[in-house]
Hints:
Blueprint: H1 2-6, H2 28-34, H3 45-53, H4 56-85, H5 87-99, H6 104-137, H7 161-182
Helix pairs in contact: 4-7, 6-7
Amino acid sequence: MAERGASLADNATLRYEVWASAAAPADLDRRLAAAGVQVLRTETIDGQLAQLARRAPALGLWLYLLAGGAAILLAIGVVLLTAYVGVRARLYELAALRVAGVRAGQLRRAVFREYRALLGLPLVVGLAAGLVGAMVMLPGIPLVTVGVAEPFTLRLGMGALPVAVAVIVVGLLAAVLMVLRLMGRATPERLRDGAQ
């Protein structure tokens, strides 16, 4: 119709598009070719979604998630490193306290309280900083919703937050339990040489 009505028959750059729904026959391209329509390219919604998933906004979200995972691993590593760096002096102190008559249960509770204070505040501050960072960063990333013609509105939900919190808490508890296990090595024999 455009060729007949607008004198576009001699326009070599003119391209036509055929839009088909999911109910279109599987051999639509062959039927179009049989009707004299040359098929230059076929695009699908899944293909467009795959292409969008490889662009900067989607990769930015994955990078943000990767950075969060790396931060969790670093935090757990720092706790373990801190516990193991001063372990000899700490075992010497704990052995001295046990010889002085402090019960093992009291020492365990004291160590647990110490690590709760040492790790509790950074955990709360880190979670708050992560949430604020996500609320500042995520609205700036252009996102696409398939099948919706109106502009995208960001609705922040829980997402992977419960999983991240669970991983952090389990990792830090594991670190504290490893420290508590070391207390079994705080025996009076450590005090014999007087060296830490």
